[in-house]
TrEMBL record:
GO terms for cellular component: endoplasmic reticulum. One of its GO terms (molecular function) is phosphatidylinositol-4-phosphate phosphatase activity. It comes from the Eukaryota. InterPro entries: Endo/exonu/phosph_ase_sf, IPPc, SAC_dom. One of its GO terms (biological process) is phosphatidylinositol dephosphorylation. Its EC number is 3.1.3.36. Residues 172-553 form the SAC domain. The lineage of its organism: Eukaryota, Fungi, Fungi incertae sedis, Zoopagomycota, Kickxellomycotina. This is phosphoinositide 5-phosphatase. In the central section; belongs to the inositol 1,4,5-trisphosphate 5-phosphatase family. It is an enzyme of class 3 (hydrolase). Pfam families: Exo_endo_phos2, Syja_N.
Amino acid sequence: MQRFLVFTSETPRAIGIVPLYQEGLPDSEKNHQFLSISLESISNQKILVSIRLLDIYSNLDFFERLDIDPIYGIAGIIYDEQEVYLSLVSDADPIQNSVNEIFRVTKIRLLSLLTGDFDYNSTDFPYDQYSDSENEFYAPKVDNSYLGPYSMYNVKKKTSFYRNYNVRSFKLISYLEKANLYFSQTYDLTKSQQEQELDKLSNIFDPSSPESEQTNFWHLQRFKRNRFRWNNFMLESFIQFQRRMSFSEYTLFQKRKYILNLIQGYVGCYESYTRANYSDNAPISYMMISRLSASRIGARFLTRGIDDYGNVANSAETEVVVSSGNRWSLSYVIIRGSIPLFWTQQGIQIGSHKAELTRSIDASVPAAKRHFSELITHYGMVHIINLVKALAYEGTTVPKSFLNSIDSGNSFGELELGIAYDVLTKKLNLHELIGFTAFDYHQKVKGGQFDNISSLMNCIAPVMNRQRIFMKKMNSDGLFSVESWQYGVFRVNCLDCLDRTNVVQSEIAVAVLYTTLFERFSAEMQLNAGEINSVLRQLFVESGNALSKLYTGTSALKTTVTSTGKSGLSGFLSDASKTIGRFVQSSFNDKNKQDIIDTVVGNKQESSQSRRFFYYDPNFDEFKKCLSARMAKSTRTENIRFFSTTFNAGGQGCSNRGMESWFGDAIRTKANVIMISMQEVVNLSVSSVISADTKNRIVWTDMILRFLNASRDPSFDEYVLVASEQLAGFTFDRRCRRADKKRESS
């Protein structure tokens, strides 16, 4: 395990991350460099960070060592209320029974890149209340032998007057320390075993040969986005720094482990010793890794649905790895994510929480296509398991009036959201690549009939057989070879993608792994069916609790069903108390929590709540000149025509009369986007206003859309409704061409 000392300099302000001296290593393998981080410039547009690898012997004399424990590495850079912090992982707990060295972050230290006032904090002064003579008695004897030659460097003096962080920075530290963050210096937690193997196979050139370096294949590999590296935004300047390295420099930098790739979610391990026909009698190791995406992360009622980039809320990949020493390894991946529509839900409601679409189903198609295309690229075929209420129109055409009501921004329940999801998947026209199974979980298990989940398992059994599982075994020559790949993935969702999702995911994963273990290895070792079942289910319970706490603030519901397959009075009471806890959390704490999350992962950059950091490249000006010269060849401009209109309906119903004079200019000019504002769309009576009647709006919306598409040039793309809002008697609609949906959303 590589650890680091922290040095600082004040003229100019810089922070040095110095690898601990490693006794016994040959001189050729020792690290004679340290990483120096400083700010080059700060402006309203961007912050430039200078990152340099400096020689220890000629540059470290200008720094002072901080008298703190060695750190594990760098988590990234954070901007918070006019302060710029370097975030360091100062303490971590090892994951028990892990074959690899995996740690959970427990302590974070923020060091300012602007001032040295925060270099020490209250925890660094545990014995200051004693006199010097008492200090010798009370203070524990510290073994500083680990410092090696670094003990000769100057130590920054501690003063009794240290500066505290502001309140928000304290909250930032508290969130990071409780955020279920994990890292490993020896194992890539951000990628499944299959993805790691594919990365190896994709590097078809020998990177050490001059020919491969000319192809820059390895360089292109480093530009791939790491989907589950949670601190992508915080590490952006460091990633840019690495991309400018040569292959040899990059390889050496990776070995030094300055940078920590964090995942958020859960890592759990369990070992079981069993009789086997192996001479080493290696244990069976069970490991579960749940990776939560940071692309659309947030609190429950503040983060729902999809965004324009195809990211969905509460998106997580869960991988179960079962292995036996270095002999064989199995890996099975299953994913979850919010329903990929633009929808929201208010947190404080009486009764069931109503949802509403912020964009129509048609307007959600481009983002949904982007979402599923990324899933298909990474996993192959995607099979959706939708656990929300049963689709009343499954297998038949959904009535137009029903869809108009949903598209028009009316509040609706889980049933309508499920129908909208089904309609959306059909509009994608990817039937060969996307499967869809609807399973009304609450209806099927009503009255504690949890055995009815078996009907779902029977239904998807053919899909499970086609998807298979990733498996590799060691050959006689001591090398691993892949014997099976996983050709697809189940995408499971309910409303929150928590409780019902946990139950069904555990059933699927246990069934796949249980079957594979007994089919492939029962002849080699004595497998305990009960132990396999209980261990895997317990790992799913712990994973579900971890993901639920991050999204809602409480543990998951239905944990007894996940672990035992049934529930009783104790489970009911436990779920009731957690439900109350979720209500309190969403009502009083989620807003502050969301603000902290936005700062850490880079949301709301336009409001300066979080700022991007860029690596300062001394040659950037020259690069910018070349880029500007080539800009004309790689870009194009296009005119977009907007048509905006207003109309007072006087509380009257819609008719086709006068549409030509109203929208004639929009048709003739081939407007890309049409914005319509209407007043008195309902009678301004007390009853109409109180009931928020939307019937007139729905009729007007449908009639206008029909007219526009009937009157347009046949060579011109049809118009679709993007969004519709109504406030009492006032309504606002946005429409655009089908081809412009993606552009209009941006």
